[in-house]
Design a protein that fits this description.
single chain; alpha+beta; Structural Genomics Hypothetical 15.5 Kd Protein In mrcA-pckA Intergenic Region, Chain A; Pseudouridine synthase; 9-stranded mixed beta sheet; 4-stranded antiparallel beta sheet; 7 helices; 15 strands
């Protein structure tokens, strides 16, 4: 068991239900996860097991104990993805849409990038829950994904991401026509206070810095009222849902985005083009490999579903 420690009470926070209090103290937990910890007796208030609905008082002491990390079980299903680059220390795969990097929960039986890593890299990693995972892509986002073959390579590559030395470029189809053909969105992002599984823009001085630089590549008119733009987006930071949140915030949500998108436009693309996922693709990544600091640039072309859609748009 990993003991997170004594949370105590922060007088700057309003008196709150126990589950909400935990989420406010540890944003990495959703409210549902906090409630599960409480139900399993992993949260003590003044030394006693408490309920989620308990109201925290200023004098209360809250202790949170999180389960220790477990080794992830290897699925028997053989996992295989297109390899775009490989050397003795790392490789870059072309992740299909619909594949998660991590299992959603313990009951998730779908094949993930974790399974691919466990099947291909027979070495021990410091964090057994992150074997070779350098960075991540959303489940419904396709494209280039870097994996490390050992801990030394993982540390080396993750350091480049931390120092923002990795170039990451995405292709996205967004609603409407951009006011400017090129631009930079510099708006901090935080987890939504209303929907814990969503992200949102944060007030100045709060949240985490997020910078997205876009360039319009093509514009398409679906009909007299509806237009869409194919854009290239370089992200200078790697926040959760960054491109999707930023584009939605300026009135140009990613087409097919079920979380931050335009529902009526999404339905239009499902009915007319059969698009059932977000049009967001990790197109290019540039980084130094752990082998001799070699600079490489890896490109993943649009997958068939997005390429076919773009072909249809050109014919309008």
């Amino acid at each position: 068991m990993e003991r997170i420690g004594l949370l105590g009470y922060n007088p700057c926070m309003s008196i709150n239900r126990l589950d909400k209090y935990i989420v406010g103290k540890y944003p990495e937990f959703t409210r549902g996860q906090a409630q599960k910890l409480i139900e399993k007796g992993k949260v003590l208030v003044n030394g006693k097991i408490a309920k989620s609905s308990l109201t925290i008082k200023e004098t209360d002491k809250v202790e949170l104990v999180k389960p220790g990390k477990k080794k992830i079980a290897l699925k028997k299903t053989k996992v295989d993805f297109p390899v775009l680059y490989e050397d003795k220390e790392c490789l870059v795969i072309n992740k299909p849409a619909g594949v998660s990097v991590y299992p959603i929960n313990e009951e998730d039986k779908s094949v993930t990038i974790i399974d691919y890593s466990l099947q291909n890299f027979k070495v021990k990693f410091a964090d057994p829950e992150r074997p070779g995972i350098v960075h991540r892509l959303d489940k419904e986002t396709s494209g280039v994904l870097i994996l490390a073959k050992n801990q030394k390579a993982l540390d080396y590559l993750m350091a480049q991401f931390k120092q923002r030395e990795v170039k990451k470029v995405y292709l996205a189809l967004v609603y409407g026509i951009m006011q400017h053909p090129e631009g930079i969105i510099d708006s901090p992002i935080q987890r939504s206070h209303k929907h814990r599984k969503k992200m949102s823009l944060a007030a100045a001085g709060t949240g985490r810095q997020a910078i997205s630089q876009y360039k319009v590549l093509k514009e398409y008119r679906l009909d007299p009222k509806h237009l869409v733009s194919l854009i290239e987006v370089r992200i200078h930071t790697g926040r959760t849902h960054q491109i999707r949140v930023h584009m939605s915030s300026i009135g140009h949500p990613v087409i097919g985005d079920a979380t931050y998108g335009n529902p009526s436009m999404n339905r239009k693309f499902i009915k007319k083009y059969g698009l059932r996922r977000q049009f967001l693709h990790a197109h290019l990544v540039e980084f130094k490999t752990p082998v001799k600091d070699k600079q490489v640039s890896i490109v993943a072309e649009l997958p068939d579903d997005l390429k076919n859609l773009e072909t249809k748009l050109k014919q309008i």
